[in-house]
């Protein structure tokens, strides 16, 4: 099988970041401010890590960044398209095909095979599931042996590999990862972090990862800390 054309999915040349958060604020119940004027750019081809203590607002940040939830104030742009203030239905449409998700608990559909799980984001976005691309994706992420198996039959790390493959299946502009190593032992977690970094380098989406795993920092282009509802830069990597 020839994979040269598949290894570099087409991506429109754009100077816009994969994700732009413009002074976003999120307040729950009118009183509890979890994000306070958070500004962040995630360029295409960059892995940005946000670290924070339990309850510091990491998941809230991911939900607002990926268009799962609207911030109370400010603006979110994905590949230069504003997704704030559109309402749930339009936000969902805009998200489909443009945003990939990796969660701590994999969130694969247990009744589908791994192959069907990988094809799901494409089907939901109304696109053809290109079998050559899916096969390449499965090989690249190390789940090609498991395509006809159900997620529940796989070890945790292989389930997360399949979830990573699914996140990249639609060649998204942005991938968000919420504690992607949280359910794995350190060696498996390190393998997933390496895989995420490699796929960002190869396929150039922007990747926003929120995590408590200190090992994540060494794979990131830049690391931020979420503390007291504010985001502050911790380090920029030369990698
Ligand atoms: N839908 C909601 N309604 C009200 N409060 C919420 C809601 N979602 C989150 N919160 C609150 O916002 C704060 C931040 O929660 P969030 O889940 O974003 O933090 P986190 O850093 O991801 O935590 P953890 O690391 O424990 O998963 C918490 O105090 C939480 O109780």
TrEMBL record:
GO terms for cellular component: plasma membrane. SUPFAM superfamilies: P-loop containing nucleoside triphosphate hydrolases. The keyword Lyase does not apply. It comes from the Bacteria. Residues 19-238 form the ABC transporter domain. Gene3D superfamilies: P-loop containing nucleotide triphosphate hydrolases. PROSITE patterns: ABC_TRANSPORTER_2. This is ATP-binding cassette domain-containing protein. It comes from Glycomyces albidus.
């Amino acid at each position: 099988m020839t994979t040269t054309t598949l290894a570099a999915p087409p991506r429109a040349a754009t100077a816009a970041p994969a994700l732009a958060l413009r002074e976003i604020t999120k307040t729950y119940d009118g009183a509890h401010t979890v994000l306070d004027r958070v500004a962040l750019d995630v360029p295409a081809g960059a892995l940005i890590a946000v670290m924070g203590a339990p309850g510091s607002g990491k998941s809230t940040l991911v939900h607002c960044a990926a268009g799962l939830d609207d911030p109370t104030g400010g603006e979110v742009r994905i590949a230069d398209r504003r997704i704030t203030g559109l309402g749930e239905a339009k936000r969902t449409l805009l998200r489909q095909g443009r945003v990939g998700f990796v969660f701590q608990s994999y969130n694969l559909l247990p009744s589908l095979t791994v192959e069907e799980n990988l094809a799901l984001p494409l089907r939901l976005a109304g696109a053809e599931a290109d079998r050559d691309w899916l096969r390449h994706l499965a090989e690249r992420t190390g789940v090609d042996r498991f395509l006809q198996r159900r997620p529940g039959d796989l070890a945790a790390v292989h389930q997360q590999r399949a979830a990573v493959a699914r996140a990249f299946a639609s060649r998204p502009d942005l991938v968000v990862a919420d504690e992607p190593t949280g359910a794995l032992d350190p060696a498996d977690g390190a393998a997933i972090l390496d895989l995420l970094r490699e796929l960002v380098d190869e396929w150039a989406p922007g990747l926003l990862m929120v995590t408590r795993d200190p090992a994540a920092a060494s794979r990131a282009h830049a690391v931020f800390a979420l503390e007291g509802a504010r985001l502050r830069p911790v380090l920029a990597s030369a990698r």
